[in-house]
Automatic annotation (TrEMBL), chain A:
The chain crosses the membrane at residues 12-36, 42-69, 109-132, 138-159, 166-183, 203-220, 255-281, 325-344, 356-382, 413-429, 471-491. It comes from Bradyrhizobium campsiandrae. Keywords: Membrane, Transmembrane, Transmembrane helix. It holds the Pfam family TctA. This is Tripartite tricarboxylate transporter permease. Residues 20-440 form the DUF112 domain.
TrEMBL record, chain B:
Keywords: Signal. The keyword Signal applies. It comes from the Bacteria. Pfam families: TctC. This is Tripartite tricarboxylate transporter substrate binding protein BugD. Residues 1-27 form the signal peptide. Belongs to the UPF0065 (bug) family. The keyword Signal applies.
From TrEMBL, chain C:
Coiled coil: none annotated. Residues 113-246 form the DUF1468 domain. It comes from Bradyrhizobium campsiandrae. The chain crosses the membrane at residues 20-45, 51-73, 85-106, 112-128, 149-167, 179-212, 219-241. This is Tripartite tricarboxylate transporter TctB family protein.
């Protein structure tokens, strides 16, 4: 079999001492970047790009790839411990992960996130090796109309993941959509709602808003009088570090389903990985016998999205490796790293650069192995971090967030904006609005609007394209089905009942 | 007498040489700390890669590290505004680009800087040729057929571009103004997604920089009609120039050049220019730039004066093309 | 929280203060621009001077907007100025809500006030996108989507406010001032200081300012942790992660 020969070749490349070292450095830096709030993978990969100048190209790319998926592992850590999602993909993890931490179950949550990520990473690596080339067709079959329908589906997921009132969740999504409109219009270049502030010309950054409504708002809320009691409770309650047998049994099916969803959605360039984590969470909530547990520390709500986002992180390499087209900003940086080394990736990169492609695929598996070996013992340390008195912890988080946000664009205005969104987030908490749908609306908003407009431009204003193109029609049908399930009055009454019950 | 004269002469010589030394000392001691080079686009893009290749060599010549700071936003104008307002001590430079230092003038009426008034030109670094590309099953076979086809079907064809103000957008606007057509322009968020749509056949054609296109053309997933430079490019020897293919008026290059804020001392500018010229003569730098498909400027085009003239002519070239569009 | 004794009297005073709050909210952008414009007197920032701001907003609120409204009814299509539009799109609807509030029994202050503030945000977005181009034939203009979502959010937030009137629910939660104030000050200080003063000074001072936000803070302990954290950050960000940022105050570095 050619495949085995290729994989053997890849492992031979990846197991060379220098590449193993690069993989380890990448995994470590990635974990660090993921854990530090604010600092995104894009900023770090960009900063580390010059270092790769002096390295052999294969080693350089193995390291950069390591940072990328390492950050997916690390990103869940801050989501779970302090409710600050560093990446769009870990927003959902924060919902149930942090709820688990509040119940003293941070250890199992972190461990399950790592285990789920590892399993998903292994499966996705095999998938890239075996089905990479045929799966490319999926990336090409997705035109603007399909993307629009996918984004509609994504927004419906956001409604489903809401804990409380559906009306409020929808309002939050629309608020997120409105926030995403700030900045330059893609088609005309007109500045929208930017008030001549140059830093707003390209819109509000995800990290800025996420740090604000999750990070700073959470800190401010915890400083409220009366909140100390809850915090002390969290610190005393910490039970076992590792998941129990029941946790593992509960998490196995979600990890499997999350992996499948993530692997498929990850291939789609632009937004696939974000939707993957939301879709996985929604699926688990819909399949669960008792959906009300979600949002209140259900381990499935951590296992499924974490597996999905890591699987998606891996399979998002497929368009890069088979088409030579970078599907997201981090991949675009990797293309930059390749071009610096004189390798311009294209459809023939697999044939022309077998060392690079198969070496990287093999290194992904090795990297995942390294990451779980690094991350499982770290769980103990992270959980111990929760015992640090909050009076010392919160100023530290403020500083880390501030430096992190500043580092993304070297823009002080971003830091101030994050502060403003911190106040907005505090207000949201006080009025029982949920920030997660807002963030999803913000991430998906531009994708939805741009693709809608592209689709209408190409079809010359004919709205029927969304229904006549089969893939798009299927996605819209699923979205409609989900929406009906969610807002059916009977079901809603039941939801409210469950809601008030568990609030008491 | 003679001795006094000799003494005076010696003194004069010493003073003269001292003066000379003082005059050059600023340039000789500069740089005393690391230099920041602002790149107005994301790391990994063509401008960034070119900057990194050239500054990597310049740092050796200057004996100080050059730190690249990527500042993205508003088609590069955010970064350029920041550079225009930076201290003119030679420690903050910018890699300007066809977009930031020429096309921005007509595109952004509220631009906070002027490419000619707020910057001192240092040197042209590299030009990136622009190609006319189309999906592989687009009916026209060559540029002549393409021109007639687009003119005949201006209502039906779709041109992709990577966002307002991007190289692919402004160069396609130039093509359209030459052809006197206004086809629908489908905007994408960067060259990656635009190329993806072209490979998938969702759009008909686009104009783009050579770097992104070469591997796709070689693999046959898209086709190239012509290259908008006077000469053919070594990385695509089979693609004719626009002059050869019958549209000589369409000439466009995405050039990258180094600028300093207005008022930077001439000695510093001279030493930076010398370092940049030296870098462009280096074999490794040359090889890397050529691998990107870039055109290395001829020695006569590397002077600050030549760059100033280029900026002037480019602004004059883009203003009539882009004014009605915005 | 909600007191059952003397219910009517309590809601009456509450309602007036809530209505007054909404009136304040209705002119909040105008007040903000006025405060901002004071800076231009000292040469900070750009924009209109305080006197111009005051006069143009006052005339827009009192005269311009009603005139434009009457003109629109009369069939005139004159382009209104941005200030008049702000009064028309943002302030007037909120004044109307404030008046309505006076005559309503608020069953759930949390939902009602939350909904109205969200509506204010949506109205503000509608105003901010009012100068953008709309549909051009089949293609969306820059303003189409923002106006669409702005309108949708107005409707949704009105729905939320309505549930606050119809359904029993939680009262307004208590807002603290100390935490938000000092955390915001720390963030602001960091943002303003990072460029001129460098990472070391701004990180440490911001840490101490943030620490003021909690009454539990013990100063010696906080200072020690702050110093350690600053050293850690100074090593971690520029060296381990290679992020370019100034370390020390600019006047010391040169």
């Amino acid at each position: 079999m050619e495949l085995f020969a290729n994989l053997a070749h890849g492992f031979a490349v990846a197991f060379s001492p220098i590449n193993l070292l690069m993989c380890l450095i990448g995994a470590l830096v990635g974990t660090l970047v993921g854990v530090l709030p604010g600092i995104g993978t894009i900023a770090t990969v960009a900063m580390l790009l010059p270092i790769t100048f002096g390295l052999p190209p294969v080693g350089a790319l193995i390291m950069l790839a390591g940072i990328y998926y390492g950050a997916q592992y690390g990103g869940s850590t801050t989501s779970i411990l302090v409710n600050i999602p560093g990446e769009a993909t870990s927003v959902v993890t924060a919902i149930d992960g942090h709820a688990m931490a509040k119940q003293g179950r941070a250890g199992p949550a972190l461990a399950i996130a790592a285990i789920g990520s590892f399993f998903a990473g292994c499966v996705a690596t095999v998938l890239i090796a075996v089905l990479g080339a045929p799966l490319t067709k999926l990336a090409l079959a997705f035109g603007p109309a399909e993307y629009f329908s996918l984004m509609v589906l994504g927004l419906i997921f956001a409604v489903v993941l809401a804990k409380g009132s559906v009306l409020k969740a929808i309002a939050m999504i629309v608020f997120g959509l409105l926030l995403s409109m700030v900045g330059s219009d893609i088609e005309t270049g007109a500045s929208r709602m930017a008030f001549n502030i140059p830093e707003l010309a390209d819109g509000l950054g995800f990290a800025t808003v996420a740090m604000g409504v999750f990070g700073f708002a959470e800190i401010i809320r915890n400083l409220d009088a009366g909140a100390e009691m809850n915090r002390d409770l969290v610190q005393q309650k910490i039970t076992g570090l590792m998941p129990t047998r029941k946790d593992l049994i509960d998490s196995t099916p979600p990890i499997l389903r999350g992996t499948i969803l993530g692997s498929i959605l990850g291939i789609l360039p632009g937004g696939g990985a974000v939707i993957a984590s939301f879709a996985a969470y929604t699926l688990e909530k819909k399949l669960a016998k008792n959906p009300s547990r979600f949002g209140r520390g259900a381990i499935e709500g951590v296992a499924a999205p974490e597996s999905a986002n890591n699987a998606a992180a891996q399979t998002s390499f497929i368009p890069l490796l088979t088409l030579g087209i970078p599907p997201n900003a981090v991949m675009a940086l990797m293309v930059g790293a390749m071009t610096i080394h004189g390798i311009v990736p294209g459809p023939q990169v697999m044939q022309k650069q077998p060392d690079l492609v198969w070496g990287m695929i093999a290194s992904m598996w090795i990297g995942n192995l390294m990451l779980i070996i690094i991350n499982l013992p770290l769980v103990g340390i992270w959980v111990r971090l929760l015992r640090v008195p909050y009076r010392l912890m919160f100023p530290s988080i403020v500083i880390f967030c501030a430096i992190g946000i500043y580092s993304v664009n070297n823009a002080p205005v971003d830091v101030i904006l994050a502060g403003v969104f911190g106040l907005v987030g505090y207000w949201l908490i006080k009025h029982d609005f949920e920030p997660a749908p807002l963030l999803l609306g913000m991430v998906l908003g531009p994708l939805m609007e741009e693709n809608l407009r592209r689709a209408l431009l190409i079809s010359r204003g004919d709205w029927s394209v969304f229904l006549t193109r089969p893939l798009s029609a299927v996605l819209l049908a699923i979205a409609a089905f989900l929406l009906v399930l969610t807002v059916l009055p009977v079901l809603r009454a039941k939801r409210d009942e469950v809601f008030t019950e568990s609030e008491n | 007498m003679t001795s006094i004269r000799a003494l005076a002469g010696a003194c004069a010589a010493v003073v003269a040489s001292l003066c000379g030394f003082v005059a050059t000392s600023e340039a000789q001691t500069y740089p005393t700390r690391s230099i920041t080079m602002i790149v107005p686009f994301a790391a990994g893009g063509p401008t960034d890669v070119i900057s990194r290749i050239v500054t990597g060599h310049m740092a050796q010549t200057l004996g100080q590290s050059i730190i690249i700071e990527n500042v993205v936003g508003a088609g590069g104008t955010t970064a350029t505004t920041r550079a225009a307002r930076a201290a003119n001590d030679g420690y903050t430079l910018i890699t300007g680009h066809m977009g930031t230092h020429a096309a921005s003038v007509p595109l952004y009426p509220k631009l906070a800087y002027h490419p000619e008034k707020d910057f001192e030109p240092i040197a042209l670094l590299a030009g990136t040729p622009i190609l006319i590309l189309a999906r592989k099953d687009f009916p026209p076979k060559d540029l002549k057929e393409f021109v007639t086809y687009v003119k005949a079907n201006a209502e039906k064809v779709n041109a992709a571009h990577a966002g307002v103000g991007s190289v692919s957008h402004v160069s396609c606007e130039l093509l359209h103004s030459i052809l006197d057509v206004k086809p629908v322009g489908v905007p994408f968020n960067g060259t990656g997604p635009a190329m993806n749509a072209l490979v998938a056949g969702q759009v008909d054609y686009m104009c783009d920089q050579i770097v992104n296109a070469v591997p796709q053309i070689n693999a046959g997933t898209i086709k190239a009609y012509a290259i908008a430079t006077p000469e053919r490019n070594p990385s695509l020897p089979d693609v004719p120039t626009t002059a050869e293919a019958g549209l000589p008026t369409f000439q466009a290059q995405a050039w990258n050049a180094m600028f300093a804020p207005k008022g930077t001392s001439p000695a510093i500018l001279a030493s930076l220019n010398a370092a940049a010229v030296k870098a462009l003569d280096d074999e490794t730098v040359k090889k890397r730039l050529l691998e990107l498909g870039s055109v290395i400027p001829r020695p006569a085009d590397r002077t600050p004066q030549a760059l100033a003239a280029l900026v002037k002519s480019e602004i004059a070239k883009w203003t009539p093309v882009l004014k009605p569009a915005s | 929280m909600a007191d059952t004794m003397g219910h009517s009297a309590a809601t009456a005073t509450r309602n007036t203060s809530v209505a007054l709050g909404f009136c304040l909210l209705a002119v909040a952008p105008q007040i903000f621009e006025f405060i901002w414009s004071i800076g231009t007197v000292f040469g900070w920032g750009a924009g209109r001077g305080p006197a111009t701001v005051l006069i143009s907003h006052a005339t827009a609120l009192v005269a311009g907007a009603p005139a434009a409204l009457l003109g629109a009814i009369g069939g005139e299509t004159k382009k209104a100025s941005s200030d008049v539009l702000l009064a028309l799109i943002y302030s007037y609807p909120l004044f109307a809500v404030a008046i309505v509030t006076l005559f309503m029994t608020i069953k759930s202050a949390q939902d009602y006030i939350g909904g109205v503030i969200l509506m204010a945000l949506a109205l503000f977005a509608l105003w901010a996108s009012s100068d953008l181009q709309g549909m051009r034939g089949f293609s969306f203009g820059a303003g189409t989507a923002p106006r669409m979502f702005g309108g949708l959010l107005v409707a949704l937030s009105a729905g939320i406010a309505l549930t606050g009137l119809l359904n029993e629910g939680p009262a307004l939660a208590h807002y603290a001032w100390r935490g938000p104030l000092f955390v915001m000050c720390a963030i602001l200080f960091f943002a303003l200081a990072i460029r001129p003063l460098g990472l070391v000074v701004s990180a440490f001072v911001s840490f101490m300012i943030a620490a003021l936000g909690s009454h539990e803070t013990r100063w010696l302990e906080a200072a020690i942790v702050g110093i350690c954290l600053t050293i850690g950050c100074a090593l971690l960000f520029p060296y381990v992660l290679g992020l370019p940022m100034p370390m020390f105050p600019r006047f010391l570095a040169q």
